[in-house]
């Protein structure tokens, strides 16, 4: 009897909490869209890993999903950029790469510092190793002109050719959940992508997306639309959020 009473109290508390969140959203004067869930958090907190786990959980529940995630690219032991990976067919292409000339300057400075300290034998060994690493690393560098974010050059043509086809109205007609990882500074250099985001977020499409903690005006607008469905991800909660987010998405598509 006591156990049943506790369950009833727990359910009532959850209902009250949901109602409180809803009321706060209304009081803010914004149009809250329950079909949108946004994940945010510091770089490296596990947003992409969380998105991938939710994707797998949705597939297990027979949900039709479209979307993409962003994957780090490493070469020669260093991060050389980021790739966009399509969730369903595994299609992959560069989003951004380290700018070639900037990286060559850094390598030259390192080489000069090492030359001062090394003797002739060690210098010959290091030059051989660095030449080998250059051959590998050069293949992952950007030689394509494009907008810059820090040391990275964004490959808009590659990004748009991969992502835009999955964002068409025809494609989304059969999509129950759209996953976008991420809607960030690099991606929003694409005016095509920005326009698609503005269009899709005005529909009833169920969306799970990641956004930076501080973003453009558009990103801040999307956060406002998400209301209480803007979720802060960190190392302490990223694993337990999988089931919660999956259930929220399932609730929206039923």
Automatic annotation (TrEMBL):
* Any GO molecular function: ATP binding
Q: SMART domains in the record, alphabetically?
A: AAA
Name used for this protein in its record: Cancer-related nucleoside-triphosphatase
Every AAA+ ATPase domain range = 33-246
Cite the PANTHER family for this sequence.
CANCER-RELATED NUCLEOSIDE-TRIPHOSPHATASE
Keyword list (alphabetical) reads: ATP-binding, Hydrolase, Nucleotide-binding
Alphabetical list of Pfam families matching this protein: NTPase_1
């Amino acid at each position: 009897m006591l156990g049943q009473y506790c369950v009833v109290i727990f359910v009532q508390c959850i209902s009250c909490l949901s109602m409180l969140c809803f009321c706060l959203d209304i009081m803010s004067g914004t149009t809250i869209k329950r079909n949108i869930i946004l994940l945010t958090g510091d770089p490296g907190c596990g947003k992409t890993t969380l998105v991938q786990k939710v994707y797998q959980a949705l597939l297990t529940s027979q949900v039709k999903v479209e979307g993409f995630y962003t994957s780090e690219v490493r070469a020669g032991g260093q991060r050389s950029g980021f790739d966009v990976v399509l969730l369903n067919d595994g299609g992959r292409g560069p989003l951004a790469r380290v700018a070639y000339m900037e990286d060559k300057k850094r390598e030259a400075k390192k080489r000069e510092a090492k030359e001062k300290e090394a003797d002739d034998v060690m210098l010959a060994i290091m030059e051989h190793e660095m030449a080998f690493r250059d051959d590998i690393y050069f293949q992952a560098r950007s030689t394509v002109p494009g907008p810059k974010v820090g040391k990275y050059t964004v490959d808009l043509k590659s990004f748009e050719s991969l992502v835009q086809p999955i964002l068409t109205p025809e494609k989304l007609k059969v999509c129950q959940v759209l996953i976008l990882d991420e809607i960030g500074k690099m991606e929003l250099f694409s005016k095509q992508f920005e326009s698609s985001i503005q269009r899709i977020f005005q529909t009833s499409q169920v969306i799970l997306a990641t956004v930076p903690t501080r973003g453009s005006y558009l990103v801040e607008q999307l956060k406002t639309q998400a209301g209480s469905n803007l979720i802060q991800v960190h190392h302490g909660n990223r694993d337990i959020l999988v089931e919660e987010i999956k259930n929220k998405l399932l609730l929206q598509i039923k």
